[in-house]
Amino acid sequence: MTASGQTARSCLVIPALNEAAVIGDVVRRVPAGVVADVVVVDNGSTDDTGAVASRAGARVVVEARRGYGAACWAGVEALAPDTTIVAFLDGDGSQFPEELPRVLGPVLAGEADLVLGVRQMRGTHPLHASLGTRLVAALVAWRFGVRLGDLGPFRAIRVDLLRRLGMRDRAFGWPVEMVVKTAALGARIVEVDVTHAPRQGGRSKVSGTLGGSVRAGYAFLTTAVRAAREVS
Ligand SMILES: Nc1nc2c(ncn2[C@@H]2O[C@H](COP(=O)(O)OP(=O)(O)OP(=O)(O)O)[C@@H](O)[C@H]2O)c(=O)[nH]1
Ligand SMILES: [Mg+2]
Predict the structure, then answer these.
(1) 188-214 tens-digit pLDDT
(2) 218 alpha carbon to ligand 2 midpoint, in Å?
(3) 199 in ligand 1 pocket by Cβ < 6 Å?
(4) Is the confidence at residue 159, as pLDDT, over 90?
(5) Phi first, then psi: what are they for 36, rounded to 5°?
(6) Where are the domains of the chain?
(7) Closest residue to atom 12 of ligand 1, CA basis
(8) Domain range 10-231, CATH class
């Protein structure tokens, strides 16, 4: 039961594009009994991502439309209708599935509507990779008075809130849109520390390169401005 008296059903969605080298390990590291369902959303990988994830025990959903947000949304649409909380983490092994209880905890306790994992970086992290995040955090603080230390991908949200947000971005602005709209609605955001390691194999699609970071940063900011306008 959650603090609100509702029976909680937590599920995990993992977007994955060509992560065959690591996705099996990520799925196997999800602690037993913490989530009712692990959904890996494969966007037409050209490697064995789907088969590896399935062998590791995940339910694999295929989404033809490319994009991080398209994959996350397809995962949400594939959840059982009685799912109350959905968590997200990446399929590249950067986050630690063992830390899922920490990320789910404040939502389960009825203390948060959205929990954001604040990345505690292991190893070097290029400055350019956090530029977009910093700009969006500044916008959210200025516009909605909500101070955030990070906008990382490891997070958990109440499904009823997520459905109210009217999520539109289907690419890398998706996580930003979620945070900005949640802040704009005045819903409760709680931050918890999570470990963040370099990807454990495979190739970067987003922020691993300078060009990728600039593109992601630009997408973050335009999404944030649009989301803020849409809700307020
Ligand atoms: N389904 C789907 N997943 C994607 C897509 N692009 C990226 N991903 C996944 O989204 C997650 C984040 O992408 P990454 O390439 O790790 O981006 P990043 O974390 O900014 O960069 P790294 O420094 O390489 O870790 C990974 O699990 C990818 O497999 C996509 O178009 N569709
Ligand atoms: Mg990554």
Answers:
(1) 999 999 999 998 999 877 666 788 788
(2) 18
(3) yes
(4) yes
(5) -80, -20
(6) 10-231
(7) 90
(8) alpha beta
Give residue 20 CA to ligand 2 midpoint distance, Å: 14
The residue assigned the tokens 């230390």 is 149
Closest ligand to residue 17's CA: 1
Instruction: List, for residues 93-111, the tens digit of each pLDDT value.
Output: 999 999 999 999 999 999 9
Whether the predicted model's global pTM rises above the 0.85 cut:
yes
The answer to whether the CB of 86 falls within 8 A of the CB of 159 is yes
Which numbered atom of ligand 1 lies nearest the CA of 14?
27
DSSP string, 73-96: HHHHHTS-TT--EEEE--SSS-B-
> 3-state SS of 176-226?
HHHHHHHHHHCCCEEEEEEEECCCCCCCCCCCCCHHHHHHHHHHHHHHHHH
Q: How confident is the model at residue 6 (pLDDT cuts 50, 70, 90)?
A: low
The torsion defined by the Cα of 37, 177, 63 and 48, in degrees rounded to 10, comes to -70
Angle between helix axes 174-185 and 68-77 (nearest 10 degrees) is 60
Token pair for residue 195? 């470990």
